[in-house]
Amino acid sequence: MRDTTHMPADHPTLPGEKIGVLIANLGTPDNHDYWSMRRYLNEFLSDKRVIDYPAWKWQPILQAIILTIRPFKSGANYRKIWNNEADESPLMTITKAQTEKLRAVLQARFGDRVMVDFAMRYGNPSTPSKVAEMVKSGCSRVLFFPLYPQYSGPTTATANDQFFRALMQETWQPAARTAPAYFDRPSYIEALAQSVERTYPTEAEAPDVLVCSYHGVPERYLTEGDPYHCQCQKTTRLLRERLGWDKARVVTTFQSKFGPEEWLKPYTVEEVARLARAGKKRIAVIAPAFSSDCIETLEEIEEEIQHSFKDAGGQDFTYLPCLNDDDAHIEALAEVVVENLAGWLD
Ligand SMILES: C=CC1=C(C)c2cc3[nH]c(cc4nc(cc5[nH]c(cc1n2)c(C)c5CCC(=O)O)C(CCC(=O)O)=C4C)c(C)c3C=C
Ligand SMILES: [Fe+2]
Ligand SMILES: [Fe+2]
Predict the structure, then answer these.
(1) Which residues in 85-107 are b (16+ Cβ under 10 Å) and which e?
(2) Which of 1, 12, 110, 315 yields a CA-CA distance of 20 to 30 A from 266?
C-alpha cells in the first residue's frame, strides 16, 4: 500500500496498486484501403527484426516498389476476409475475444486487482498506448505476454522490444516481466490435439496427411541462432505423439514466403502439391504458430494452399481453425500467465 499521510493537498492522485497482464499480437491494418494498408505494411516491413537488411539498401526498395504494389494486393485479400459487421480484421475480432475470456478467467481467480488488456506490435491499439494506460490505472507490475507459441525474432523479440521502448517513456516505471514461448507446454499441445480430434476423433478417420503449416522466416535466421525452426519441429512432434498417429501422417511445412531469399522449407504451397501428386487425396492443414486466425490462415491456407493441392489432383482439403478463443486455449494461456505472475499475487 502507498503511504498517503504526508501528501500535500495538490499532490497528483495515486490509483491503487494493480497488476497488469498485457497480451500482445502482431497487429493488423485499420482498414483494407490503400493508405491503411500502406501505413501498416510500412511499419511492419521497416522493422529490422522482420527484415534485417541495412536501411540504405532496403528503404528505397520498400518505399518505391513494395509499398506501391503490395497494399493493393494485400488490401484485396483483407477485403475477402474482413469482418464487415465489426468493421475490423478477423485478427482484431479474435484478439478481443481472447482478451475478454482471459480477463474473465483471471479476474474470477484474482479479482479486479489484475487488469487484462491487449496491444499490437504494429498499428492499433499500440503497445505504448496500452502500457501508459496500465500505468495510469495503477499497475505497478506488468506481465507482457506475446501470443506466439514459438519464439522468433520477427515476432516475440520485436514485441518485447516495443514493450521495453514503451517503458522508456514512463516516469514511474512498473516492474516488468515478459512471458516465454509456450510451444512445449502440455496444455497448449492438448488444446491443439483436441482441435484435431474434434474433426478426426480416431486415427482411422484421419486424413492421409496432417500438414502442420507454420509461418516461415528466412532460412538465414535459423543459422544465425533463431530457435523458431526447432520449436516448430518440436511442436509437430509433441502434437503427433499426443495424437498417437503414425510418423508419416504428420508433417511440418512453412508458408507465407516473402521476397527472393530462401525461407524455411518445405514450403507449404509446394508440399501440398507434392503430396497430391504422390497420391494423398485427403489432407488437413493446421497452423500451430498462429494463436488466432488471420489473413495468413483464412486467405493463404484456405485459398492459395487449398488451390495448390486441388490443382495437383488432391480431392479433400480441410483447414482446422486456429485455437482462437477455445476454452482449452484460454486455459493454456491462463496457465502461462499464472506461472509468470509467481510472487506477485501472494
Ligand atoms: C517479410 C517478412 C515477414 C516475416 C519474417 C514474418 C514473420 C512472421 N509473421 C508471423 C505472423 C503473422 N504475419 C502476418 C502477416 C504478414 N506477415 C508479413 C511478412 C513477414 N512475416 C506480411 C507482409 C504480412 C501482411 C499480410 C501480407 O501483406 O501478406 C499475420 C497476419 C496479420 C493479419 O492482420 O491478419 C500474422 C499473424 C509469424 C508468426 C512470423 C514468424 C515466426
Ligand atoms: Fe508474417
Ligand atoms: Fe501471406
Answers:
(1) eeebbbbbbbbeebbebbbebbe
(2) 315
User: Is position 329 annotated in a ligand binding site?
Assistant: no
Span from the CA of 54 to the centroid of ligand 3 (angstroms): 24
Say yes or no: CB of residue 155 within 6 Å of ligand 1.
yes
For residues 136-153, b (16+ Cβ closer than 10 Å) or e, as one string?
A: eebbbbbbbbbbbbbbbb
Q: List Cα–Cα distances, 95 to 30, 44, 235, in angstroms.
A: 14, 18, 22
Of the candidates 15, 18, 17, 20, which has an alpha carbon nearest to the alpha carbon of residue 142?
20
Q: Which helix (H) or strand (E) holds 146?
A: strand 139-146
Helices vs. strands in the chain: H and E counts, helices first:
13, 8
Domains and CATH numbers, the chain: 18-181+328-340 (3.40.50.1400), 186-320 (3.40.50.1400)
Q: Which residue has the cell 480416431?
A: 202
Q: State ipTM.
A: 0.95
91 lines ligand 1 (CB under 6 A): yes
Angle at 183 between CA 304 and CA 283, to 5 degrees: 35
Look up the pTM and report it.
0.95
**What are the φ/ψ torsions at residue 141 (nearest 5 degrees)?**
-140, 135
The reply, when asked if residue 6 is annotated as ligand binding, is: no
Query: Exposed, middle or buried by CB within 10 Å (0-12, 13-18, 19+), for 177?
Result: middle
Residue-wise pLDDT tens digits, 284-302: 999 999 999 999 999 999 9
